[in-house]
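Practice problem: predict the structure.
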Amino acid sequence: MRTIFQHITIFLLVLSTGLSFAQNGDKGYRFEGNDVVFTFNKDDYEKFTDNTSEEKIKFENLTIDNVVVSGEFNNWSLYDWKMAKVNETTYELRKNINDFKDEYTWEFKFIVNNQYWAEPSVYDPNIKLAVKKGTHLNVYNLRMDTKAAIRDNKGNVRFRLRGYDDAKHIIVAGSFNRWNEEDFEMYKIENGWELKLNIKPGEYEYRFIVDGHWMEDPSNPSKVINEFGEYNSYINVGKYVTFILKGHSNAKRVVLAGSFNDWNEEDIKMEKGDDNYWRYRMPLSSGKHYYKFIIDGKWILDPENPIKEYDGKGNINSVFMVK
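Answer:
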């Protein structure tokens, strides 16, 4: 297996902090950590459509026994994604972001009693005119966009392109987003461009689009030939592992640095648990990784890891193998 390289930094999404990928979503859903939380509040809807007769009825004429999330992501099932009752007016369903495969935008609705479709208002911000077999219906669907959950400054993969200071727009596209040319625009940093994404573990190909011109990642020697006789850059987003540093309970700050993040002294701040151990969980590609801990500014080897190697520059580093 080929390994991920230093120009792409992989680090943990710290879910335990309660950070969301994005702010609250549009009507009907929000993001919380790795989850999409669907929320139905009966006070948000005035009319419902009978799935059989297509008759419109008012809410006060309907007693709610159950609520289901139905959309493109589950083939508009009337039964599969049943919501849990939170209180007298609200129902919720929590789904992992990885349940939504291949696409980033989805249409959906809430269906009551497996029969009555809740109709959003034409004034709701995230609606789209419903289409069935090419025919526009006289109703709207809610629209969910999960790109906000994929593109985030706490993402687990960092794409970086050095130089190109005069470029106006640089996009990263790959097999992780079906090579979409608009989804993920990179932002300008000192001496280059950068973008962090949350990508589930797996093997992916990607390219940069610099002002409309496609190119491979010049900093990544791992590449595969494509159907146009050119090269796509390759990354392996690996499995999660946990680094643990025992003791040092009086330390104010412990940082993990290694070959997986270009030995950055700021990126990966470890957290101290109730047992006074410092931990950090992160995805790593298969292969050999070098690392050290930085305790209040002092670099040390992992005292619990007997595997060490010289780096050829006079330094000794701890070694972590991912198989």
